[in-house]
Amino acid sequence: MLQFRRFICAVAVLLGAAISSSAQDATDLPRVVTSPILVIQSDRLYAESDFGLRVERDRRAAEAALQDENERVAAELEEEERVLTEQRKTMPSEDFRAAADAFDAKAQEARETQISKQREIVQVAEEERRRFLLSLNPVFEQILVESNALIILERRSAFAVRDVLDVTERALFQANRILGDGTQEVQQ
User: What is the DSSP string of 37-65?
Assistant: First the structure.
């Protein structure tokens, strides 16, 4: 009886594997899953894609350049403040007050400019992520058709899901093939 149960379990496992995936094609695409519901890890898809990696490199480079600029601006303002503090000893108080107010306005403007530049870096990265996901609509449609699926859900929104339903690898493969790092025209 025990051997019969093992045999049934082995047949069920093999049957399940045959139903859930098809043979890989010559391009080594990750397996196709047949299911009405699929899941994807969009953060991982983006972060591990050539496109997402390029955007992250660009963002880090822009932030490093901005940090260098922030340090240069800060050093210039510190020097200007030091000179102003030295001049305070010899300046009439009205002239010093006017110079100090002008310095404060200049420092505030520099601060706002640098904050604006930081926001722009973040905004560009967010826009690139949206562009990436929108560009993948044909890939998602293809996965839906190949899998005979009705919907692809975000994996983190599911309480429990079997790994076999996760099509992130397949979407990642296609994203890299079609979009590359996002600097070239989209291939179809």
Answer: EEEE-HHHHHHHSHHHHHHHHHHHHHHHH
Task: Of 138, 117, 31, give the one whose Cα is nearest residue 68.
Answer: 117
The number of folded domains in the chain is 1
Under 8 Å between Cβ of 21 and 33: yes
Whether 5 is covered by a domain: the verdict is: no
Contacts of 46 by beta carbon, 8 Å cutoff, 6+ apart: 52, 129, 132, 133
Tally the residues of the chain. Answer: 188
Residue 148 backbone phi and psi in degrees, to 5 = 55, 40
DSSP state of 186: P
Q: Is 7 a member of any domain?
A: no
Each residue's pLDDT tens digit in the chain (188 positions)?
Answer: 444 344 333 333 333 433 344 444 445 667 778 899 999 999 999 999 999 999 999 999 999 999 999 999 999 999 999 999 999 889 999 999 999 999 999 999 999 999 999 999 999 999 999 999 999 999 999 999 999 999 999 999 988 999 999 999 999 999 999 999 999 875 55
Structural domain range at position 30:
20-178
In a domain, 24, yes or no: yes
Q: Which residues contact 52 (CB under 8 A, 6 or more apart)?
A: 45, 46, 129, 132
